[in-house]
Specification:
Helix content is 26%, strand content 36%. With 50 residues, the chain is of the alpha+beta class. The chain has one domain. Strand 1 and strand 2 form a beta hairpin. The radius of gyration is 13 Å and the shape is elongated.
Length: 50
Amino acid sequence: MAKKAVASLQKGEGRAYAKVIKMVKSPKTGAYTFQEEIVHNEKINDFFKK
């Protein structure tokens, strides 16, 4: 399924978006989880600051 999402971003205005992945540590268990989103290129830094 990820291949379809990435492939659809290659056409037209989709190049203005990127799939970003961030590691988030759980305060309760201490385990790491991954948070994935597709965001506009101008808002990538805002995603990592959250």
